[in-house]
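input
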Amino acid sequence: MDKRRELLIKKLFGIVIFCSGFLHLYRWIKSLNKKQEVTILVYHRVQEYHEESNFDASIISASPKNFEEQMRFLSTNYNVISFDRFIEHIQNKTRLPEKSVVITFDDGYKDNYRNAYPILKKYGLPATVFLTTGYLDNITIPWWDKVAYIINETECTDFELTGFGRYSLKTDIQKVEAIHSIQEKLKKIKEEEKNLLIRKLEDILNVEIPEDLGRELFLSWDEVREMSKGGISFGAHTVTHPILTKVSTEKAKEEIVESKERIEKELGKPVKLFAYPNGEINDFNNHIKEILKDNGFTCAVLSIYGTNDLKSDPYELKRIRIDNFDTLPVFESKLLGIFGRIYNWFFKWNTQ
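output
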């Protein structure tokens, strides 16, 4: 299903559940359920969609305007708590505030500081940013942004990548579809092979990635320190964002520990929170969890859709992803748990 159709369905979904009164009814039903749950939201980038021309625009979670609307809604209708407070409740088995929400960001893009941080301060909301430290140190940029940059910058109108297929790049829509298709296939292979294929893609499409590309794409350590003083906490998200089950156990440990130590060095405080790169069910295992436990982490978050309670495994905490163009009814339906059930059912049915 292409992005335009997906966006149209999402908008129609929001209109239907709002105008039908179903959202109001479900909200009332949910209020009768006293189950102790925490919803962890995950954002990536907060910026205008049209401003991103070279990198991967699909990970933009909200425009600044929509983000403020969402934060305003949370501040008046939910209890936004810090990640540390949530972990204290899990460890002590103490009662959670009703309608608890935790706000998180992955990777450490600079717009988290420029656009999201002022809004969070305005509404007095805590949040946690999971940093991929190599991006802040300008070691590299994300592989998904490399793929997007290569395809957006090439003058070629079609190409073939061995084992992946043939792609047409005559229109912007075709470019977006090619980026998404290649990214999804790259997630399934070993890290070394993935990096080789991206270099091959550079050669095929005759695009050279500048050494300073993305220098202003990620947070600086000065910005991280400022945010830390302003109530934002930070967790580790590895050094270079490999899927940890696609590298050796030794390499996985190195990525985890070095990112933790780098943040601790800059902030002068312990780092106990971790986010698995990609964060799907096959992207971590018990060996990875043991590395986290042995190195002082108290919890880890996934990208798997769902909520959490006091019985949740603290090293397998689920999150709900916020996407660009989520209307406020869609945003609330995600918080209530309606969106994931109906939307996932629809796409499963629609693709059968």
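quick obs: The CA atoms of residues 1 and 36 lie 36 Å apart.
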